[in-house]
Amino acid sequence: MTQNTSGNFDIKIIGERINPGFKSTKALFDNSDLPGIQALAVKQAEAGASYLNVNIGARALTDSGFMVECIKAIQEVVDLPLSFDFPSKAVQEVCFGAYDLAKAKGRLPIVNSITEHRWDLMDLAKEHKFKVVLMASERVEEQDGVKVAKGNKTADEIYTTSRRSAIRLCEEYGMTMDDIFLDMSVSAIIADTEALNRNTLDAIIKVGSDPDLKGIHMMGGLSNIGQQLPPKAVDGSELKHSLECAFLTIAVPHGFDTVLGTPWKDYHPLPEDNYVLQTYRNFLDQTGSNALRAVRKFYKA
Fold this sequence. Notes:
single chain; 8-stranded parallel barrel; 17% strand; globular
């Protein structure tokens, strides 16, 4: 499997750019520009992506033909396995019907994503083999005989949900831990007064040290972490990207090995004396108004 090994990180990149959240990609979808989508797929593959995430937005629900055209066009120009990023089982079925396993060199696609509360996508396993993105951010609890979704905030909630769901996938569906990408949901720091970043990192440590979960992939999208922050840190570095690298510097040694991101970004470990890394470590120890004050230290001397 191709891996992005920029710096000293040995991490997989699931290329995120085939997504209408990017204005340039939305224009490609709006114009049904298949050659443009192909060029974007090739660019991500050449930059070291291990998978390509495919999300055409709401159009997937109303125009299954275009969904098929996109998958076939992408597979004409790259041999990477694809990640189908849709919560709809019907859309996932369309994706499986279009996916050519041989063109991906026999490598399984990824279903992105399931939660304990959205487990119906695993019905697909009756007919298809795949890898899966499992969201660690949500659990199911029973209240008055009704199962309801609850957001996970503490490290124990994230870890116990992850463990319970991953073992279920292996025992009930014949998956291996290598088939599971555990999405750890990295939060923005701008208003993180509840130690969500700290709890996510603590959960990563718990998962990474659990022998029953050996081989599982921990992943996340990092683009939210620097949301609404100014472009530059006090030391002049690109603040948002430096924050992403700071998170990875702490998380990768504990088994966080996959990023849903832009493959041509230079993800690299930061030295311990790096200003953003030091400031991030300080932020992780704060809660409430102290956390808000700690955020200002990233960009105010």
